[in-house]
Amino acid sequence: MFIMGEQMSDELVLIESIARDVMALTLNRPDKRNALNIPLLEALCRAIEDAHARQARVIVLRGAGKAFCAGLDLSEAADPSKAQESAQWIAQTLETISHSRAVTIAVVQGAAIAGGAGIMSACDIVVAEESAKIGYPEVRRGLVAGLVMTFLRRQLRERDARELLLLGEPIDAQRAKEIGLVNRVVPEGAALGTALEVADTLLKGAPGALAHSKQMLNDLWPKPLESDLAWALNHHKNVRASREAREGIAAFNEKRKPNWDASV
C-alpha cells in the first residue's frame, strides 16, 4: 500500500493519501493490464473500506501501467470452479464503489474494457485521457454485460447503450464524453491532475450534503441499484455457465476466432 508516500509494491491495490481528504486507489496488475481476478476484486473492496476508515471524502481510482483495466481475467474465467465466485465479486465491487460514502473519480488512461469499463461507470465522475479506449466486448466472448448494464441504463440513451453492448466495439474518449460515459477528456498525462482539481472543487461542499446528494440520486430511481444488480447477477451467472461462454473465453485465451456454430 501507499501510506503517506510509503509504497508496498506487492499489493494488488495501492493506497495513497494524495491530498487532504483525498485517497488514490491504484489497481496494481500492470503486467495483466489490471485484469480483474478474484483477489484483485477482494482487495479493491477492502481498499475502499480502508479509505472510508481514513475518512476520505474523495476516492480517485486509477490503474497502474498503460491501462486502466482490461476487464475480466479470462484465464481465471476459464476455470468453471471460479465462475460463480468471480461473478459475485464483480457485483459486490460495483455495488461497493457505487455506494461509497466518498465521491469517486475514475482516472482512465489506455483501455477501460468490459468489467474495467463497468468499474469506471460505477464511479461518480470520470476523467479520461484523449487516447483512452472504452468498450463492452462481452458478446464477442459469449458473455453478456449484465452487471455493467445496470449502470449504462442509468447513464446513457437507449440507442447509445444498444450500440455499445450489441456491437461490442470500443469507442474513443471523445465519443464517450458525447454520449455521457465520461465527464472530462484531457490530454495525455493530464488526467490525474484534472481529477485532483475536481476533487478540490468537491471538497468545497459539505461532507454530509455531498453524501446525502449521492444517496438521493440513488434513491430517485424506480428500483434500487441492489435490486437491479441482483437481477443482473442471476443472468450473468447463467451466461457464464453456457457453452457459448466456454467457447468465447477459450477462443480469446487461445488467440483464435470463436466457432459459434460449434458452441451453440
Primary descriptors:
264 residues; alpha/beta; globular; disordered N terminus; six-stranded mixed sheet
Tell me what you see in this structure.
This protein is α/β, with parallel strands linked by helices and 264 residues long. The protein has twelve helices and nine strands. The strands form two sheets. Strands 1-2-3-4-6-9 form a six-stranded mixed beta sheet, sandwiched between helices. A hairpin with a 2-residue loop joins strand 1 and strand 2. The radius of gyration is 18 Å and the shape is globular. The N and C termini lie far apart (45 Å). The model is unreliable at 1-10 (pLDDT under 50).
Structural class of the secondary structure composition? alpha/beta
Q: Write the element-wise H/E pattern from the N-terminal end onward.
A: EEHEHHEEHEEHHEHEHHHHH
- Form type: globular
The percent of residues in helical segments reads 40-55%
* Rg: 18 Å
**Biggest sheet descriptor:** 6 strands, mixed
Secondary-structure map with pairings?
Elements: E1 13-19, E2 22-27, H1 38-53, E3 58-63, H2 74-77, H3 80-98, E4 103-108, E5 111-113, H4 115-122, E6 125-129, E7 133-135, H5 146-155, H6 158-167, E8 171-172, H7 173-179, E9 184-186, H8 191-202, H9 207-219, H10 225-240, H11 243-253, H12 260-263
Parallel strand pairs: 2-3, 3-4, 4-6, 5-7, 6-9
Antiparallel strand pairs: 1-2, 7-8
Helix pairs in contact: 1-3, 3-4, 3-10, 4-5, 5-10
